[in-house]
Write a structure and sequence with these properties.
The complex is a heterodimer. By secondary structure, chain A is of the alpha/beta class. Chain A is built from 25 helices and 11 strands. Chain B: Its main location: nucleus.
């Protein structure tokens, strides 16, 4: 007879351990256990059978993998924790005795210092692993870099986070590896591709963060401690892979002046370790210097201009050659049944050339930090901004003639009321009135930068002119899928067959009911619109409408018209199809009537539109019914297991398609409202 | 003191009122009262006292000296014995005398020694406010002489009045008096609360009290002034106690210590030990800066199944944009629903909002909270590896041909053939597809024009026996119909085709007669045997007129006829339970007019044989009994395969027409009375590949479309319906047959629990005909 197996010695009962058991086994306190778990990346598991994993009858909530905990037993950090505990006792004792100096000495000199290097190596055995897990790290560190210092968040931590984040941004700028970005209501999403890994993170807008009471900063601080170490190593590796010295040179003074990214200077790492600036950053010094060395400034500017132009030329030349040799050709399948192989979107070179030929000027109301980062990451070398936004700009002079694009985020700017010719004026930088336009440059709203980089090409700037109603800002990550609603495509493309007609009928009925309501709504909207316009006019400060604007509008309208015509054609085509179908049905009816021996009257078949419509609706309904029948028929042939799976899938897909239908109906209503 | 007081009252009364008797009575009353109150033992004394008291008190009243009176009254009982007592008594008498004399007047007249009146004046009793003091009234007037002169006298001198001043009572006398009053030793006058008795102190306690009172050390026998004992001498000894020499360590420095010190010194010199330096801020700063490559020697670690990396957060959608397309904005209803929902129930933690331009975007208030929750998720949420479904339900559905591909199949009833009385048991469409032969309960075989439903030909084979089965001979060169009615099989040539074909077919049948005649007739012994093959005979003249050419008398009821593809052979089955096994299945050769019984014994398992078919291309005979279908190789004469459909009672089966031509696989459909339709792929398994149960009643007949053009099959059931299926068999060995249910054809009425009895296909078109128990046949197209 086989040996009787004892219960709880193998399988799930042995493989899983509850949290209490784990804490007891490690002989540490719960907060320490928490920290250890965060550092080591130990997380609870869900046993396949909870009842088997739990030794007692009470349902335990969290289970850990026993081997994870065993592995923690040999952790050097565990000893550090114990040392810390012993020290805490010593300090408490000396404080109890009133020996404050002793306590402070103990705290200062004997506090065990945690190093997480080995933990990071363990958790991320290869660099790629570390990159893969960088999403959360970056999000949290960017948050902490933007937090105000409190007792929970010491300024040292904030400074460290800021430094690491800026270093990482500099790497992205140098390698042009930023790919996508998105302005959401939560903050700004960025996505970079480093060594084939897509890293996405979220940076909050620069506001004081609202903190509710139920946020435990100790936990976040533990994560931050780990992530700072991780990002430090990652930055070192990234910099050294480029041959740059790490850490980059950090100018404390300019940082204090708000230079942020510009406070760092990247240096190449040569054999004799002599620092050499690879990026010639022409940071115009403070305004006090400016007046004194105006001539020098002018000369320097001239030189820069020359250099800049040369650079642009070079880059363009390089670009063309690269296009000839390096770029991946687009493969298009010739036959419809062939598979389509995925191809990479854009390479770093393309990204680096997007904004390269331009000089940007950021007005003081636009968010400087994200714009500077984005523009630099997409190849722009010359970015100026208002002096109030901090140091490190290419120019603080708004009237600088080299500026090609100005990013403004104000209501409509009337053109023409230029106070003075910028070349002739002296000290014009201070005298440019807000709201004026300097000819020869493109005024755009910040969204233009985002949309351009997401599209990978320069978009029409007139759509993004100040005061214009912006086109909707779309997430670059949403891939068009079947059944899902796509706001880019026209409504007709994605509608299900006959959906519009159905909706029309419904809306006709609804219209009568909700007519009054709508009127009221419309009135409210009008009034609000009036309010808006008033506000805008107040904000704008100028009352002369620019001719350029008008032109733009005309262009727009023209283009719209063209588009509209295209749309009509489509509709016509579809209508003709419909007509064909109608003709067929009519023919069918005639045949039927003939068979029945009745005289077929064309009048009864009728040009009556309502009848036609209803017949169409009927047709659609019957078609749907047929489809359903078909599905039922198919289902009959499946095994029960598969059928259930299918039903599950159908459920989720149905939910999705319902959502899409809802969005479509909303859009339809809106379009109708416009007409 | 009570007595004197009462006496005073009495005095006062006597003074005011002269009535002595009344007074006395009251006095006596009082005294008696008082006496009662007083103790009894003093009765005698008090009586004595009364007398003296009355006198003395009178005086007392005048002299106002209570104490003296008291004293005197006290002393009275003790006067008789001692001299002192006498003296006291004397004085009192004296006093009494004088006072009594003085009372009525300011002066008294006394007789002096000479007998002369002598005025003796009262002593002037000055008031309190008088200047005059009588302090020295009793002063001794003896002058400056030693008192020792009076030692021998009881008095010690004279007062100013010349009266003797008696020597005062000494302390000894008082002590003696007090001693005479007995007080128990240790008497405290207190009551011991614990015992309730008077508290008395013991001798020791009294002694202790005394000592404490006297500031003495209460301990008995303690001597505070004992002589000192010198325990440690204060004198220094000159000679050592031990003669051992002093150890070196007392006076030489330690070498070990020196060694250790030198070690430390060396360490400091070599820089191993650094002097303590308070850490500077720079060190802290440098600590944060990474200065080495952690992944310098990176080695990939194989992925462990238990390691589950944290899932990344999904990228934001359109609705999260600061300026989304307007259709993503919530309308009033949605907004309200969102606001009213519990924060936990919300699908999104934010409401889409359109800010129009970037400057209007406010900070996101839940940012920190969301990041915190992400942190919590990272370390607190259990991770499970879930294989994600490929959310494309189409991929799960079996790859079906599109409905267009499946067409054509029969969908509606086109023609109804009416004429039979009673059930139509059987029908068959001729190989050219123009005619339909039917046989029914009325014993007649009819031939109809298929498309129009017109009856062309009719023959009554028997009076009472129903026609069980009719079958056309395959092949277009001849039109021969085989029908089974009762025990006989009739071979007929209906006069429907053009004369040439009719002639050819008649010749074809007639050729057999010659062959049979050439054969020697069976011996008598063989004739006797039960399983002798029957002789084909010519029909009766009445039948011959109608076109019946030959009759095979089988002696048992034939229920199934199946032609071989070439049209030379056909197999019949007599499924009756009384039929001997050896004659149940017979194969007939048309060209030779020969009947054979290939089976000698009963087919094992599953009751009598039900039906039999030839394989469309191979020399294989399939025989079905109640539960199994067996395949016999006729050329080798052995059992090839047993198919077990799992049905209780097989009603019919059919073999796929393209079996073994395109591929090696034979496909079989089996219908059973227990409502099952079973598809067998013989290559796959003995068991059915698909079991279809779409009928509510028994399945009577199943039939593949005879040509390979339409992969259709149909079944007929007692529930009055036919079901049409698509069943395509591919040449690919890997892919299985695709079966698609297509259509349910309803039209036949159920009569007597029977619905559709047989179904047959048009040889070329996707049309089928069915024979119903309601006496009609229907063409479906």
């Amino acid at each position: 007879m086989a040996k009787i197996k004892k219960k709880g010695t193998s399988g799930q009962a042995k493989n899983y351990i509850t949290r209490t058991q784990a804490v007891r086994k490690l002989q540490i306190s719960l907060p320490d256990f928490r920290r250890l778990c965060i550092f080591k990346g130990i997380y609870p598991r869900e046993p396949r059978n909870k009842k088997k994993a739990a030794k007692n009858s009470t349902p335990s909530t969290t289970f850990y993998y026993t081997k994870d905990i065993q592995y923690l037993l040999h952790e050097p950090l565990l000893r550090k924790f114990r040392d810390q505990k012993a020290l805490a006792k010593k300090i408490a004792r000396s404080l109890g005795r009133g020996e404050v100096s002793d306590a402070s000495r103990l705290e200062k000199n004997h506090a065990p210092k945690l190093t997480l290097d080995h933990v990071i190596k363990e958790r991320y055995p290869t660099f790629i692993d570390a990159l893969r897990d960088l999403d959360d790290a970056l999000s949290l560190l960017f948050l902490f870099a933007n937090l105000p210092s409190t007792t929970h968040v010491p300024p040292k931590t904030i400074a460290l986070c800021q430094r690491l984040c800026h270093e990482f941004q500099h790497y992205l700028i140098v390698t042009n590896s930023l790919r996508k970005s998105f302005l959401s209501i939560k903050g700004i999403y960025y996505q970079a591709t480093i060594q084939g890994q897509d890293i996405m993170w979220l940076v909050p807008y620069r506001f004081v963060q609202k903190v509710n009471g139920d946020v435990d900063y100790r936990i976040m601080a533990t994560f931050v401690e780990f992530y700072t170490t991780l990002l430090g190593f990652v930055n070192f590796r990234l910099y050294s892979s480029l041959g740059l010295r790490y850490p980059p040179k950090f100018d404390t003074r300019s940082d204090e002046n708000g230079a942020e990214l510009a406070a760092f200077t990247l240096e190449g790492r040569t054999v004799d370790e002599t620092p050499k600036a690879i990026e010639a950053k022409k940071s115009t010094s403070s305004s006090a210097n400016k007046v004194a060395s105006k001539d020098v400034q002018a000369q320097v500017d001239k030189v820069i201009k020359k250099a800049g132009l040369d650079k642009v030329k070079d880059e363009q030349a390089v670009e063309t050659t690269e296009e000839a040799t390096d770029a991946i050709d687009k493969f298009e399948p010739t036959a419809p049944e062939a598979d389509t192989l995925p191809q990479p979107d854009i390479s770093g070179d393309e990204a680096g050339a997007l904004f390269a030929p331009f000089t940007f000027y950021i007005s003081r109301e636009a968010p400087k930090a994200p714009l500077e980062f984005m523009l630099r990451a997409f190849g722009c070398k010359r970015i100026g901004w208002d002096a109030v936004l901090g140091d490190g700009a290419f120019t603080h002079d708004e009237t600088d003639t080299r500026i090609t694009h100005q990013i403004v985020d104000r209501p409509a700017l009337p053109e023409g009321a230029l106070p003075a010719v910028p070349a002739a004026s002296e000290g014009a930088a201070q005298k440019v009135r807000p709201g004026t336009r300097i000819p020869g440059r493109t005024y755009i709203q910040p969204q233009w930068v985002w949309d351009c980089m997401n599209e990978g090409k320069l978009l029409r700037p007139d759509l993004y002119a100040p005061g214009a109603t912006l086109p909707p800002h779309l997430s670059p990550w949403v891939k068009p899928t079947r059944n899902a609603y796509d706001p880019r495509a026209s409504l007709a493309e994605q509608e299900e067959e006959g959906e519009a007609d159905m909706a029309e009928e419904e809306s006709d009925e609804e219209m009568e009911e909700a007519g009054d309501e709508k009127k009221a709504d419309a009135k409210a909207e009008e009034s609000s619109a009036e309010d808006d316009s008033e506000e805008e006019s107040v904000d704008g400060g100028m009352d002369v409408a620019g001719t350029d604007d008008d032109d733009d509008d005309e262009e727009e309208s023209e283009s719209e018209e063209v588009e509209d015509f295209g749309g009509f054609e489509d509709e016509a085509a579809s209508e003709s199809e419909d007509e064909e179908e109608a003709a067929r049905t009519q023919h069918q009816k005639e045949l039927e009537a003939e068979a029945a021996g009745l005289p077929f009257s064309s009048a009864s078949a009728g040009d009556d539109k309502g009848k036609k419509k209803s017949s169409q609706a009927k047709k659609i309904a019957s078609k749907k019914r047929k489809e359903e029948e078909e599905l039922e028929r198919q289902k009959m042939m499946m095994s029960r297991k598969k059928r259930k799976l299918l039903e599950k899938m159908m459920y989720s897909n149905k939910k999705q398609s319902e959502e899409a239908a809802k969005l479509r109906s909303k859009r339809r209503k809106m379009e109708k409202g416009d007409n | 003191m009570d007595a004197p007081k009462s006496s005073k009252k009495r005095k006062a009364v006597t003074r005011d009122v002269e009535e002595e008797a009344g007074l006395f009575s009251g006095d006596e009353l009082d005294a008696g009262d008082l006496d009662g109150a007083l103790s009894d033992n003093a009765n005698e004394l008090s009586s004595d006292e009364d007398v003296s008291d009355s006198e003395v008190e009178l005086i007392d009243d005048l002299s106002d000296e209570d104490e003296d009176d008291e004293l005197a009254s006290d002393e009275i009982p003790s006067d008789g014995e001692e001299s002192l007592g006498k003296k006291l008594a004397l004085t009192t008498i004296d006093q009494g005398e004088t006072s009594s004399e003085e009372e009525p007047l300011n002066y008294r007249i006394e007789k002096d020694a000479n007998g002369n009146d002598r005025y003796i004046y009262d002593e002037i009793n000055p008031d309190d406010n008088s200047e005059y003091s009588d302090a020295d009234e009793n002063a001794n007037t003896i002058g400056n002489i030693p008192l020792s002169f009076y030692d021998q006298y009881p008095h010690i001198g004279y007062d100013i009045n010349g009266k003797k001043i008696m020597r005062p009572a000494t302390g000894e006398a008082l002590d003696a008096l007090l001693d005479s009053i007995e007080i128990p030793k240790g008497w405290t006058g207190l009551t011991d609360p614990s015992t309730g008795k008077p508290l008395e102190l013991s001798q020791d306690e009294l002694e202790l009290l005394r000592k404490v009172q006297m500031n003495e050390i209460p301990d008995e026998g303690y001597n505070p002034y004992e002589p000192t004992v010198e325990w440690f001498t204060s004198k220094e000894e000159v000679m050592p106690i031990s003669a051992a020499p002093e150890p070196k360590r007392r006076f030489l420095p330690s070498k070990h210590e020196a060694k250790r010190v030198m070690k430390i010194v060396k360490a400091i010199r070599e820089g191993r030990i650094l002097p303590y330096k308070p850490p500077s801020d720079d060190d802290d700063k440098n600590k944060d800066i990474i200065n080495y490559d952690l992944w310098a020697d990176e080695a990939e670690r194989p992925d462990h199944p238990m390691h589950i990396p944290a899932p990344k957060l999904p990228p934001p959608g359109y609705e999260e944009s600061y300026h989304p397309p307007p259709e993503y904005l919530p309308d009033k209803k949605e907004r309200k629903a969102w606001e009213e929902a519990d924060p936990e129930d919300r699908e999104q933690e934010y409401l889409p909002n359109d800010f129009g331009s970037l400057r209007k975007v406010p900070g996101y208030e839940n940012f920190v909270k969301e990041k915190f929750e992400r942190c919590l998720d990272l370390y607190l949420a259990p991770r499970v590896r879930r294989s994600k479904l490929n959310i494309d339900p189409e991929s799960l559905l079996p790859k079906l041909p599109s409905p267009e591909e499946l067409k054509p199949f029969p969908t509606a009833c086109a023609t109804v053939f009416r004429g039979h009385k009673g059930r139509v048991r059987t029908l068959a469409v001729d190989p050219s597809g123009m005619w339909l032969a039917t046989g029914g309960d009325d014993g007649s075989v009819r031939v109809w024009e298929l498309l129009t439903g017109r009856q062309i030909w009719n023959v009554k084979l028997g009076e009472e026996d129903p026609v069980n089965v009719v079958r056309w001979r395959p092949g277009k060169d001849a039109v021969i119909l085989a029908a089974a009615a009762g025990d006989d099989i009739f071979l007929m040539v209906p006069p429907i085709a053009d004369p040439e074909i009719e002639k050819a077919s008649l010749e074809y049948i007639d050729a057999g007669w010659g062959y049979a005649a050439s054969k020697p007739p069976p011996s008598a012994a063989e004739e006797n045997k039960k399983n002798t093959p029957p002789q084909w005979i010519r029909p009766s003249s009445s039948l011959a007129e109608y076109g019946v050419c030959a009759v095979i008398p089988l002696r048992y009821v034939v229920k199934s006829i199946s032609w071989h593809r070439r049209g030379d052979y056909f197999v019949t089955v007599c499924p009756g339970s009384s039929t001997p096994a050896s004659v149940a299945i017979s194969i007939h050769t048309l060209s030779k007019h020969l009947t054979q019984f290939p089976f000698r014994r009963r087919i094992k398992g599953g009751g009598p044989p039900q039906t039999a078919h030839f394989h469309p291309s191979k020399p294989i005979l399939f025989v079905a009994n109640q539960r199994t279908v067996r395949a016999y190789d006729l050329s080798r004469q052995l059992l090839v395969k047993i198919v077990q459909p799992g049905a209780r009672w097989i009603s019919s089966f059919d073999i796929h027409p393209t079996s073994s031509t395109a591929s090696g696989g034979d496909n079989l459909i089996v219908g059973s009375y227990d409502r099952r339709l079973l598809w067998h792929d013989l290559e796959l398994s003995q068991r059915p590949y698909k079991t279809l149960r779409y009928h509510r009643k028994a399945i009577r007949s199943v039939r593949f479309h005879p040509s390979g053009r339409y992969p259709l099959f149909a079944d007929a059931s007692d529930d009055g319906s036919l079901q049409i299926f698509h069943g395509s068999v591919t040449g690919d060995m890997l892919s299985n047959a695709t079966i698609v249910p297509l259509k349910v054809l309803k039209g036949h009425k159920v009569t007597g629990e029977l619905g559709v009895l047989e179904v047959d296909w048009h040889p070329r078109e996707a049309w089928c005909v069915s024979a119903g128990a309601d006496g009609t046949c229907r063409l479906w197209m």
